[in-house]
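Tutorial sheet, problem 5. The two components below are modelled jointly, 549 residues in total.
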Amino acid sequence: MSRRRYLTFLPAALALSALLGCKPVPFTEAEKKAVASLSLSSLPPLPADPSNRYADEPAAAALGATLFFDQRLSRNGDVACSTCHLADRQFQDDRPLGVGISTTSRRTMPLADVARSPFLFWDGRRDSLWAQALGPLEDAREHGGTRAAYAHFVKDNFAARYAPIFGPLPDLSDVPASASPLGGETEKVAWAAMSEAQQEAVNRVFADIGKAIAAFERSIVHEKTRFDRFAEAVASGVEPEGDAALTDEEFAGLRLFVGKANCIECHNGPRFTDDHFHNTGIPPADGLSEDLGRQAGVAQVLADPFNCLGLYSDAAPEACKELRFMVKSGPELRRAYKTPSLRGVADRPPYMHAGQIPTLEAVVDHYARAPKSREGKSEVVPLKLSESERAALVAFLKTLSN
Amino acid sequence: MGFNWRYLVAIIGIAAVAAMALTKLYSVPPQPVSGPNFAFSKPSDQGTYVVAIEPETTPVKQGELHSWIVTVKTPDGKPVESAKITVSGGMPAHGHGLPTSPEVTDHLGEGRYRVEGVKFSMAGLWELKFAISAPQGDDQAVFNLML
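Model answer (structure tokens):
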């Protein structure tokens, strides 16, 4: 090729490289601030749980770990917390709906940093980790047991470990083998026949089981990923190196995440969640009964005898601010569900509260289309995203996994 | 063969077009020049009261519950002691309300009231509205905050 011909192609080649293969322009200060706010290094220390005075006791956490993996804590002897919360799968189960004794109506949530959530479950129907742990234990589709049976179980199997933490176990000799206000008909009748003192004694042991499991779960935390190493480099003004360097596509995805696509509106902070509840127009899963999301969750957490203001909470009422000042009514609660963390999200399809959406690509498509909600009003507005923008967002989300 | 200046002109021309295209691709929308009023003390909408707000702990952190002290006075500076105050607000740009239901939990005297349970769940422009009911009349004051 002559020099003249070469020079003819040069301008076109330059223009093309500028448009396609170029390095993206650096972050603005606002973008840098947004990226830093998502970094795990921005996570403050885990706050105390005033409702659980055993939350940070190692012996309670050790007992909780034992109970978490113990299948005997169920009606059929086959279901432990770890049946759905699998330790090597981010403490979730990869299924659209959790399966204990039978199939539930919700996607199993991962557990990393779950102790930081002010409200638990997709609809926030419990207000502490220990109160949350009690729900599945008595749910007929999950562990399917009763609080009286669990109290007997602890007395028969763990008395020596229980007493040094929680004090002596109560006399359960006159307590029926199985009884609960939430059980089957005979178990409800058995519960109603118990004295108030017996009921309180059983409730206290039951709450202590939850408090031990919660103490263990407080140790399950997020680990830094490529994104965090990238964010730390950006924050300290050095060029990200090795696996901390994002590809141009991942970088473009991050920029969309904090900018045009506005994912950060709800998926904010180092855990990528605002801990709040939103109707995002996710359609109900086929075959499940009516599900009002947060609207039902609010009523349930207020009525829960194990909530922060209840008899079994260790918190002074003034410490129960999340419960006292929660939004208790309003149209925005209808079919609103908790914003899940996006850390590790690429490794745990399917998505949404009943596993309705199978892939991340389909999730991005849902938010771009922003369909109307079947009930209530979706907060999401439609957004035009090109194929490459969608791919970039997914590429960025993958940097939140190791 | 001498250097052909036409190529240099062409290179500069195409580079300029590319630069413009990049600016369009990566630029952020321009920020409004005249922003909202961020004063923490102002007359209420009808001028019935002068309302001042102040966070009880600073800095105000995203996602954490915190409390504010609201001071209500008449325009001539007399504290209003028997006010009923309700709190609302939200993010006007996003069309949603506050993530919590803040309430007045204490009357501290000298027209000062403690509002607990305020939370801002994301960065951006928030509105806090205080509806005040007292013998002087019903009025409200709306404050803007940038988090």
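Marking note: The beta strands of chain B are 41-43, 50-55, 66-73, 84-91, 96-97, 103-109, 112-118, 125-134, 137-146. Full credit if you identified this.
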